[in-house]
Design brief:
The complex is a heterodimer of chains A (about 230) and B (about 400). Chain A has about 230 residues and is α/β, with parallel strands linked by helices. Chain A has helices at about 55-65, 85-95, 110-115, 125-140, 155-165, 185-200, 215; strands spanning about 10-25, 25-40, 45-50, 70-75, 80, 95-100, 175, 205-210, 220-225, 230. Chain B has about 400 residues and is of the alpha+beta class. Helix content of chain B is about 55%, strand content about 15%. Chain B starts with a helix and ends with a helix. Classes of the chains: A alpha/beta (about 230), B alpha+beta (about 400).
Chain lengths: ~230, ~400
């Protein structure tokens, strides 16, 4: 076990006394203020709160796409603050699946190629990559749309492809930023069903930011954030 | 290779932009390679002069003639073995510049001795030596016009002293070939006729344009040149004597610094295309900020994202370069058939798209692609995930 790995494997995410400031010209904006959060392995956590409360910032810190100003963020047994940019990128490719509000599929790639994208960083052969990507698409119920481009899919279908892309590398943690924010009610329900499936059947730890109480209701735990502090 | 579909699909998606960028790059490489080929051909021609031959001309300019008496005085200078008058006649076939070919008035007997490059059968040689209106023509010229020994044709000079109110009539006495290995670059589109014919037809007004001397030893070229010029130092018409190679160089230099001009055009075009391509790549990368953010979120290292942008730019350069080289190859192949220009450039031996030019062209295309992609690639490298995704 390396120095950056932490022994407690039952905790998927551990945020310890994290502060995050942004510098805007001469002003320092406080986004997270000494925040502590523990997410056990296999938990489905919903982070709620008003706009500007720091939800997305916290999610970005957990996903390893931003760095805390101070404090420790330990995810999947690795303290992220000790990793270089390159190490962090590699870590993300293996441990985190990210689901965006606006899907963020690559428009020039079809569904299968979009799902295959994270696997390009792995040593898998082309055949293995294709097989895994097809399996992921099958799980999200879009195997028959594998050759469709994002522009040919509905919003719900795009988000399902995005979920397939997030899970195809079998990450420890799934982070979702308003995954139903751009979807109609029925599509949103389908996406939440899928996320529940990945949580319950595949044991994925999920951290989801949402404004939608119905979405939050699907989670095991709901935490509220306000002005950079967890209020419950 | 596994990232190739991502790059190629981007190029294909914006096919109009890709096509216009590739075409712009192709035009640039086409110009650079074509101009460089002409420069190389000219430079190659400069080095073909025979080291045993000197050329004497008017000290001021080729435009002015030397007195006829100079030839015998030069012939008497130690080390000079033979001499011939060599006058640019400027004759135009069918009165149209587009039918132009080089034609010179020479003294047949010494000319054939001084220029072993012109190879023709003995009977044709004898015919020319004894025919005042006769001429010899290069094989390519004969083939171009379908001329055979015994055929007649007429030329009218555009040089005022040689305009005598009617065209000069010539008889083809011989068709010369050459040994391309021994004498590379010897012009087979040229025509030579008897200076005596010119002299008499102009009422003895024709002066001497240049005098070519065959010397005993190339090592003595400097000493003999000085001796010739010293001979006329105190006369009204001073001379300038130089090796044939130097003479060719100065002859071409009359058109200005050709290499500088052509290379300047090439560089200006390349710089313009560089700006256009860099702008196109910047737009392409700016439009893909979200994608760059997504790739980085998925774990693509910044270096890889930068490499993908650079490879895309290099591919544009490569495609443009390849197309430009094909166009340049076609143009250079067709150039000798273009009226007038063709006759001029076909004098330059070795006119063709050499491996060096191909290498140079592709190198320039890749360099352009690299430079054009460098800034956008650096922007992609430095893009912070949280910032680019927030812009969506």
């Amino acid at each position: 076990m390396s120095a950056t790995e932490v022994a407690n494997k039952t905790t998927a995410v551990s945020v310890q006394n994290v502060r995050k400031f942004y510098q805007r010209d001469s002003m320092q904006i406080k986004v997270l203020d000494g925040l502590n959060l523990e997410v056990p392995q296999g938990e489905f956590l919903a982070l709620m709160g008003p706009s500007g409360s720091g939800k997305t910032t916290l999610l970005n810190l957990i996903a390893g796409i931003d760095r805390a100003t101070s404090g420790r963020v330990v995810v999947a047994g690795t303290e992220l603050g000790s990793l270089s940019e390159g190490q962090l990128a590699k870590w993300r490719s293996r441990n985190v699946g990210f689901i965006f509000q606006f899907y963020n599929l690559i428009p020039v790639l079809n569904a299968l190629e979009n799902v295959e994208l994270p696997l390009l960083l792995s040593p898998l052969s082309k055949r293995e990559r294709r097989e895994r990507a097809m399996t992921a698409l099958r799980i999200v119920g879009l195997a028959d749309r594998s050759k469709h481009y994002p522009g040919q899919l509905s919003g719900g279908q795009e988000q399902r492809v995005a979920i397939a892309r997030a899970v195809v590398t079998d990450p420890t943690v799934l982070v979702a930023d308003e995954p139903t924010g751009d979807l109609d009610h029925q599509s949103a329900e389908e996406i939440l069903d899928l996320m529940q499936t990945f949580n319950q059947e595949f044991g994925k730890t999920i951290v989801m930011v949402t404004h939608d109480p119905r979405a939050a209701a699907r989670a095991h735990v709901q935490r509220h954030l306000d002005k950079g502090v967890l209020t419950n | 290779m596994k990232f190739a579909p991502l790059i190629l699909k981007h190029l294909r998606k914006n096919w109009l932009r890709t096509l216009s960028t590739v075409l712009a790059m192709a035009v640039c490489i086409f110009l650079i390679c074509t101009l460089q080929t002409v420069v190389d051909a000219v430079n190659y021609g400069l080095h073909l002069g025979n080291a045993s031959r000197l050329v004497t001309r008017h000290y001021v300019s080729l435009v002015f003639n030397l007195p006829n008496s100079y030839k015998n005085k030069i012939a008497a200078i130690p080390g000079v073995q033979n001499t011939t008058i060599n006058n640019w006649f400027g004759g135009i076939y069918r009165g149209d510049m587009k039918y132009f070919f080089p034609n010179m008035a020479v003294e047949p007997e010494p000319f054939l001795q001084i220029y072993p490059e012109a190879m023709l059968p003995e009977d044709q040689k004898q015919a020319w030596l004894h025919d005042g209106r006769g001429c010899i023509i290069g094989r390519k010229l004969a083939e171009k016009w379908g001329w055979k020994v015994g055929d007649h044709f007429q030329l009218e000079s555009f040089i005022p002293p040689y305009r005598v109110g009617k065209p000069f009539d010539f008889i083809v006495d011989g068709i010369f070939d050459t040994d391309p290995v021994k004498y590379p670059g010897w012009d087979l589109t040229a025509m030579y006729f008897n200076y005596k014919y010119l002299y008499e037809a102009t009422g003895q007004r024709a002066g001497v344009g240049t005098i070519t001397e065959l010397i005993d030893d190339p090592k003595n070229a400097g000493r003999i040149s000085k001796a010739i010029d010293a001979e006329f130092e105190n006369s009204d018409v001073q001379t300038k004597t130089e090796t044939e190679q130097a003479f060719r160089a100065s002859f071409i230099a009359m058109a200005g610094n050709l290499a500088l001009l052509l290379n300047g055009i090439g560089l200006a075009v390349a710089f313009t295309i560089l700006l256009v391509t860099a702008n196109t790549m910047s737009i392409a990368v700016r439009e893909r900020q979200q994608e760059i953010g997504v790739l980085k979120t998925l774990g693509f290292p910044s270096g890889l994202v930068m490499a993908l942008v650079l490879i895309e730019a290099l591919l544009l350069g490569l495609m443009g370069g390849a197309l430009g080289l094909i166009l340049a190859g076609g143009a250079i192949h067709a150039l000798p058939n273009v009226p007038f220009i063709g006759d001029v450039v076909s004098q330059f031996p070795g006119l063709g798209l050499s491996p060096k030019i191909v290498f140079y062209g592709l190198g320039a295309a890749l360099l352009l692609g690299l430079l054009a992609g460098l800034v956008p690639a650096l922007l992609a490298y430095r893009a912070r995930i949280t910032e680019v995704l927030r812009q969506v």
